Amino acid sequence: MRGHGSLYGRRRSTAVVMNILVLLLLASFAGIIYPYIKGMGRKHFFWSTLGIFIFSGVMYPKLDPEGYKQSQEKAAAEEKQEALAEASEASKTASVANAAAKQARKPNSNSEVLAKAGQAVEERLPYSRSEYPKLYSQIGSATFAKLNTLEEGAIYHAAESENCGKVLSSGTSDTSRAGAAMFFIDCDDQQRFMVTQSEAEEALKRFKNKTLALHDLSASCTWRSVSECSPTAAEPLPFAREASIVDACDRVLNAGHPDAASIETLGNGRRDYSKAGFVRISRIFVANNASGKSSKASYECNVRLGSDEVRSLTVTDPTGTKKYL
């Protein structure tokens, strides 16, 4: 208690002394304006003011060393805080600049993007209400009517990424809603991109203006981490599993098609999952008949998940539609 009392006493005495010095300083300063003591001029009061000011500055640390130390520490802490704030702001500015540079589009790369997207665009299968009744009712007629065009835009959007070597396939996610279609695009370097309707529409504008450009767009997930793409009932499987199902459909096609020896399948096609536990694979292929004439056809293959049993396979070619299973 004695220590606290003596500190309080010293600070009280210091306050008294400092108040006296302030009063003297004010009195001297007033004398500069109007010399009120006989025999003293303005210069005398000036030197008196300066002396009191210097004396106060020199004596304060000695009169109250603890208070002086605390004030110095407080000033140093404030300076440090200001420096940290400035450094943080500079770091944020640099991060924004780096992100902008990273997202900067490379000029004159329109043809490169088109080359990466070309096969997937060409091999897309059209959406029809009869084949996709559930999707039609889910997103409405207006959005459904745009799906074929929007999916092309989604392919271009993914192809603009430097992290996509070449687009392999595309599909519509069952998270799609009226006016807000969602697409998943798979690339050959095991990257999957989830593309919104607005992103697809913007990519279509760049395609029309021939301004598609490569930039560092990150994938939404990889084939081995499809869960990071927030999968729903429409995309429940890793891509490696999907590939094995596609192979099963190809085997049924090769076993039943009359021109099986000359079938060439194109791309990975489209996969549509149902909550009933089925996946429908839609894929384009080219077959040469006995006379050597080539024709492009497509198949739809329905597979029960779990057993991976192919339940049906339908082929559509220039001659019509045939069921092979």
Describe the structure.
This protein is an alpha+beta fold and 325 residues long. Helix content is 50%, strand content 20%. The chain has helices at 2-33, 42-63, 65-103, 110-122, 133-159, 197-208, 239-256, and strands spanning 167-172, 182-187, 191-196, 221-222, 264-273, 278-288, 294-304, 309-317, 320-323. Strands 5-6-7-8-9 form a 5-stranded antiparallel β-sheet, covered by helices on one side. Strands 1-2-3-4 form a 4-stranded antiparallel β-sheet. β5 (264-273) and β6 (278-288) form a beta hairpin. α1 packs antiparallel against α2, α2 (42-63) packs across α3 and α4 (110-122) packs antiparallel against α5 (133-159). The chain is rod-shaped. The model is unreliable at 1-5 and 231-236 (pLDDT under 50).
